[in-house]
Amino acid sequence: MARNTRNAKSPPGQRQLRVGEEIRHVLAALFERETFRDPGLAGKHITVTEVRPSPDLRHARVYVVPLGGGDTTAVLEGLKRVKPFLRRQLADRLQMRFIPDLIFAADQSFDEAERIGRLLHKPEVARDLDGERYGAADSPHGDSEED
Predict the structure, then answer these.
(1) Paired strand residues for 116
(2) Distance (Å, rounded) from C-alpha 124 to C-alpha 60?
(3) How far apart are CA 32 and CA 138, in angstroms?
(4) What does the DSSP assignment read for 14-55?
(5) How many CB atoms lie within 10 A of CB 75?
(6) Of the candidates 44, 49, 34, which has an alpha carbon nearest to the alpha carbon of residue 67?
(7) CB 48 within 8 A of CB 32
(8) Which of 47, 48, 63, 64 is least surrounded, with the fewest CB atoms within 10 Å of its CB?
């Protein structure tokens, strides 16, 4: 029987997506209800934006962002310290043969979206976008060359 050889660029399978969402829901509920004694997590509200399990479901990269912004390095260090507790909670709540090793990473997508928004609102870019929106024949001022 041929072995499934997925390359690294292939999209995640249905099972990966489902497991990632289940892990995200459990972690989000834990972060909402638990009070952590770790100094990097004390008083912090953490949002889990995405969980990407590996194809073999042995590892899961968890993308987090502190609610309201702030220092993500302290939060990531605190999450590394409470990882055994989080894995134990996942084992209690999920029906899986193996609980994946959690790898925490800061979610940069919000920063990237903000950077793109700033670029789009620059005057020179806004001018170019307005020129594309209105063709040469239909100017926003009604200056069409009809006689």
Answers:
(1) none
(2) 42
(3) 53
(4) HHHHHHHHHHHHHHHHHHHH----STTTTT--EEEEEEEE-T
(5) 20
(6) 44
(7) no
(8) 47
74 has a pLDDT exceeding 80: yes
Residue type at 34? E
Pairing state of beta strands 59-66 and 46-53?
Answer: antiparallel
Query: Tell me: domain 14-107, CATH 3.30.300.20, correct?
Result: yes
Predicted confidence band at 19 (pLDDT cuts at 50, 70, 90)? very high
Angle at CA of residue 136, ends 133 and 141, nearest 5°? 75
Q: How confident is the model at residue 140 (pLDDT cuts 50, 70, 90)?
A: low
DSSP secondary structure code for residue 12 in this structure = P
* φ, ψ of residue 6 in degrees (nearest 5): -90, 135
DSSP state letter for 5: -
Give the separation between CA 55 and CA 114, rounded to whole angstroms. 31
**In whole angstroms, what is the distance from residue 142 CA to residue 135 CA?**
11
Tell me the domain boundaries of the chain. Answer: 14-107
pTM of the model: 0.71
